[in-house]
């Protein structure tokens, strides 16, 4: 579908001040600004001008930010003005009906102002892009004034600058300080720019990133059905860090993540099915962590408004286009009842809602492919934006040799949820993938499959009668899950037999899993039973057992994980076992051993009182599991780290003398390094299940319950306990619409780089990047995960 066909031809505009606006631009387009330019003269110079160099203490001066592009003019500019706070005190600015300059003075006491200027009429900015007023306190104040550019653009946003030469501060005798200057709030700007503006929300009181609203267009940040200067002002506030970008926290009724993130356009496509790079993703990268909010977004929206009102050609290919999934045809879709089992390949499209009816008992499955151990090569394909509703007692099982190809987009994720809304924990059984990869328990009866594997390897039957899994094809391919939400899943049959949100039974490394959310689960969020499957960008929210769980010899890789618990019985952030039984006569030496490699995880328990039945452990590692875990943040648990063993140097019935988990710690085959612990009752769990140290130093010589304390205190592991509340380090982790980015002011430092060949070379701690206060970054989960309405 072409971009033009998405356009909404008429859209109300509430800004009379822009009615007569015209587009003026003298900026040349003959420069390639995408890479280095080998020219002696800089493309853009920025200077400061001061009204006086000799003002006495108590007097006011004006300071102008002057933008001087080598060719043409500027339409928007964003940067940081710095000064010595012992010499100057910021007092404010005057309002302008056409040019808005938003100033973040939160760090003014430290001599820093974030300044974002946009011409709301899409005209060129004056040479003096902004004028700010200061009170002189003393000293050589002029010499302390400097400016650092973050971003600037021509009036049509067809030339962009992210670097500039600072040309110093000069005296400007025609510049006059204002006695009426003041701190300008959003309401001040709204009054100055849109005095006739009236809230037209029609009773709507809450918006979230990725809101599902019929006809919602790019640029309508306020979600009110109008494009006006207020949308531009909101974007400016985010760019200046006056509002957080994750809607629903500091900024309800706003959607900066999808509706406001319009630049770069990344033609062709609007983020619909088949569009390789959606709007807002920087450069040619496909990782949506490269999205940011800055003046480029604000200027595109301002340009569209001005052109629309002047009946001029549309200068912005994204703004005013309907966001994919918000077309009228996506509301009131017909319901298609699914007949199970699914034995022939089929495609489910976004034009329907697919409903799987209730089963007679909790053991009922909706099987894809046959459950006879050989499979049928059946493929279930699900289009982006498709909604699948499952009724009580039903579980979707992708059998061995069948596949699921469920590929959503950031604007249109695929949603598996309950028929009954709102979905509650355990409303249906969950999504199961059964593969042919190797496991370390079961019986040696796996079938020989032509072209796939030889027979005679270990296989097992899934909990709750969810089918056979296991074999010896570690590169097995069970399909693709991308931008997928699993909501309200899980079933508990007994204390040791449950169904999870997403279960990966012996799934092989040929399977692709990326951008997955599991929300409101009854048991574990994501559990791996053996296999070699990799996954990344996984977010588990409020599952009533463990968020991430492995058993039976899982040896995959994972990166960028988020776990958030609850006060209603949620358990561990990570639980790792080798053999897989919760207790009894188990074999911790079973092979292949569990040995995942995990980088970048944010693990959150509960915000509040931690009891014996809530917020168990950030990481529970036991049964001689191996694992490499790096770059973790662990807050809000009874214990951040718990290392247990099912036995010491004694024999179980019929089994040889077992090794100790301390042997894995000493050898480094089990290691947790580079992490921060806070808001936990204890950073390390001191309990009777710790193995008594009987081996070599450093971890085999302890007295029993002090193992975790010794491990965390070992400087070689780079683990830091006692870090205080999560809110001291993360932007807004406990909100209904959370923001898990590390605060720019946090003391959490850089962590460890993954090995060469790993997914992404991220060196930050936790599952999302640190807050960027210059080009405001949007984390990978924003705009497509729940809650959405």
3D structure, described in words:
By secondary structure, the chain is mainly beta. The protein has five helices and 44 strands. The strands form eight sheets. It has a 15-stranded parallel sheet that branches. Strands 15-18-21-28-30-32-34-36-38-40 form a ten-stranded parallel sheet. The longest helix has 15 residues, at 295-309.
Task: Present the secondary structure layout.
Elements: E1 44-50, E2 60-69, E3 76-82, E4 88-92, E5 99-104, E6 112-119, E7 128-136, E8 146-153, E9 160-161, E10 165-171, H1 186-193, H2 229-239, E11 292-293, H3 295-309, E12 335-337, E13 346-348, E14 353-356, E15 365-368, E16 379-382, E17 387-390, E18 395-398, E19 403-407, E20 414-418, E21 430-434, E22 443-444, E23 458-461, E24 468-469, E25 479-487, E26 491-494, E27 497-499, E28 502-505, E29 512-519, E30 526-529, E31 535-541, E32 548-551, E33 557-564, E34 574-576, E35 597-604, E36 617-621, E37 627-635, E38 639-643, H4 661-667, E39 670-678, E40 682-684, H5 707-713, E41 719-720, E42 730-732, E43 739-742, E44 776-777
Helix pairs in contact: 1-2, 2-3
């Amino acid at each position: 579908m072409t971009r033009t066909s998405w356009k909404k031809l008429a859209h109300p505009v509430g800004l009379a001040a822009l009615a007569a606006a015209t587009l003026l631009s003298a900026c040349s387009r003959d420069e390639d600004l995408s890479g280095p330019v080998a020219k002696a003269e800089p493309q853009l110079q920025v200077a400061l001008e001061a009204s006086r160099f000799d003002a006495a203490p108590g007097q006011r001066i004006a300071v102008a930010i002057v933008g001087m592009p080598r060719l043409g003019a500027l339409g928007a500019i964003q940067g940081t003005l710095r000064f010595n706070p012992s010499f100057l005190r910021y007092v404010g600015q005057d309002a302008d009906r056409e040019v808005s300059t938003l100033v973040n003075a939160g760090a003014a006491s430290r001599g820093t102002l974030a300044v974002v200027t946009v011409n709301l009429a899409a005209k060129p900015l004056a040479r003096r892009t902004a004028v700010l007023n200061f009170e002189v306190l003393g000293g050589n104040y002029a010499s302390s004034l400097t400016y650092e550019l973050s971003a600037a653009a021509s009036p049509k946003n067809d030339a962009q600058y992210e670097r500039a030469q600072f040309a110093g501060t000069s005296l400007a005798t025609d510049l006059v300080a204002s006695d009426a200057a003041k701190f300008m709030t959003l309401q001040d700007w709204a009054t100055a720019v849109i005095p006739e503006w009236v809230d037209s929300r029609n009773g709507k009181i809450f918006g979230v990133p990725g809101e599902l609203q019929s006809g919602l267009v790019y640029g309508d940040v306020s979600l009110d059905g109008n494009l006006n200067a207020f949308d531009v002002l909101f974007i400016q506030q985010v760019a200046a860090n006056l509002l957080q970008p994750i809607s629903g926290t500091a900024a309800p009724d706003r959607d900066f993540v999808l509706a406001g993130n319009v630049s770069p356009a990344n033609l062709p496509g609007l983020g619909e099915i088949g569009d390789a790079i959606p709007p807002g993703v920087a450069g040619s990268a496909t990782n949506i962590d490269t999205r940011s909010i800055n003046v480029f977004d604000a200027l595109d929206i301002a340009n569209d408004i001005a052109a629309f009102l002047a009946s001029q050609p549309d200068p912005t290919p994204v703004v005013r286009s309907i966001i994919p999934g918000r077309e009228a045809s996506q509301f009131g879709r017909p319901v298609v009842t699914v007949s199970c089992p699914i034995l022939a390949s089929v495609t489910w499209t976004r034009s329907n809602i697919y409903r799987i009816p209730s089963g007679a008992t909790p053991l009922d499955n909706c099987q894809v492919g046959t459950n006879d151990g050989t499979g049928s090569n059946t493929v279930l394909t699900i289009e982006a934006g498709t909604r699948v509703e499952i009724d009580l007692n039903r579980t979707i099982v992708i059998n061995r040799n069948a596949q699921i190809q469920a590929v959503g987009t950031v604007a249109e994720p695929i949603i598996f949820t309950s028929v009954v809304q709102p979905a509650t924990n355990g409303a249906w059984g969950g999504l199961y993938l059964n593969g042919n990869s190797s496991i370390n328990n079961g019986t040696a009866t796996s079938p020989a499959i032509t072209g796939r594997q030889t027979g005679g390897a270990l296989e097992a039957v899934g909990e709750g009668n969810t089918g056979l899994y296991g074999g010896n094809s570690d590169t097995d391919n069970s399909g693709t899950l991308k931008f997928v939400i699993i909501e309200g899943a899980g079933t508990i049959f007994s204390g040791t037999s449950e169904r999870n949100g997403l279960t990966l039974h012996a799934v092989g490394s040929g399977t692709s899993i990326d951008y997955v959310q599991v929300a409101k689960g009854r048991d574990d969020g994501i559990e791996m039973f053996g296999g070699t499957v990799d996954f990344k960008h996984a977010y588990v929210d409020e599952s009533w057992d463990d968020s991430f769980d492995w058993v039976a010899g899982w040896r995959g890789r994972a990166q960028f994980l988020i776990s958030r618990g609850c006060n209603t019985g949620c358990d561990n952030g990570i639980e790792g076992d080798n053999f897989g039984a919760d207790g009894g006569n188990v074999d911790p030496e079973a092979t292949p051993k569990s040995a995942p490699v995990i980088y970048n995880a944010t693990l959150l328990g509960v915000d509040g009182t931690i009891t014996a039945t809530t917020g168990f452990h950030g990481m529970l590692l036991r049964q001689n599991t191996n694992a490499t875990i790096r770059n973790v943040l662990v807050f809000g648990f009874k214990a951040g780290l718990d290392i247990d063993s099912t036995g010491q140097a004694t024999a179980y019935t019929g089994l040889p003398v077992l090794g100790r988990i301390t042997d894995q710690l000493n050898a480094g085959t089990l290691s947790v390094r580079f992490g921060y612990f806070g808001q936990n009752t204890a950073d390390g769990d001191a309990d009777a299940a710790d193995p008594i140290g009987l081996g070599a130093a450093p971890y085999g010589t302890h007295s029993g319950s002090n193992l975790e304390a010794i491990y965390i205190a070992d400087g070689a592991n780079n683990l830091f306990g006692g870090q205080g509340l999560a809110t001291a380090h993360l932007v807004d982790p406990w909100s209904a619409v959370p923001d898990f980015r590390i605060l720019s002011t946090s003391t959490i430092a850089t962590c460890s780089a993954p090995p060469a060949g790993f997914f992404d070379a991220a060196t930050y701690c936790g599952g999302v990047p640190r807050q960027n206060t210059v080009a405001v970054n949007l984390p990978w989960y924003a705009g497509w995960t729940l809650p959405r309405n």
